[in-house]
Structure prediction request, 191 residues.
Amino acid sequence: PQGVKEAVHSYVSKGWYVVPLRAGTKRPYHKDWQKKVFTVEDFKEDDNVGLKFVDADDPRSVKLVSVDLDCAELANIEVFKKLFPGTSAAWGRAGKMISQALYVSAQPSYLVFKDHANEVILELRVGADKQSMAPPSVWRSDAEIEAKTGRAIAPEEAAEGFLRIANESMAEAIKKISIQRGYNPTEYALV
Prediction:
């Protein structure tokens, strides 16, 4: 495993912007971290490492986009491989094999996808006020993560989860539009 300073050097050499985070947290040390450019010298070996994102109109050439996978079904590595383009910058932790994946985009846009219960499924994290914790950071213990996810999810089960979320979201949208237009959706069947 890489040490913090070695990882930071690797990120900086790719043109990525780093942020020193307090050990064991996702919190930057500096209140104005968005405005600073940090170097390897700004990190201690027990710090966590954040990758800083920039706005689409920022003159810097490397514009990272983080695909932050908050949904257990998406964090399954086989599902991830089928849904997202390949990247060598993806990581996770025990119980959530893929939790972040990085891509470079010329015109990044911040997007959040939520399920019917308003829980975040997927976030495309970009913008000068955003950062994501990167390896070799430590945030939670594996035991806590396992307790939250419970078990590995088969690709078939993940696909069923997507269908369930899509069906519920579509049914709710149809119901809302029908009621707004004066129709009672209980009097009709969808075919």
About this structure: The beta strands are 17-21, 48-52, 64-69, 90-93, 96-104, 111-114, 120-125, 131-134.
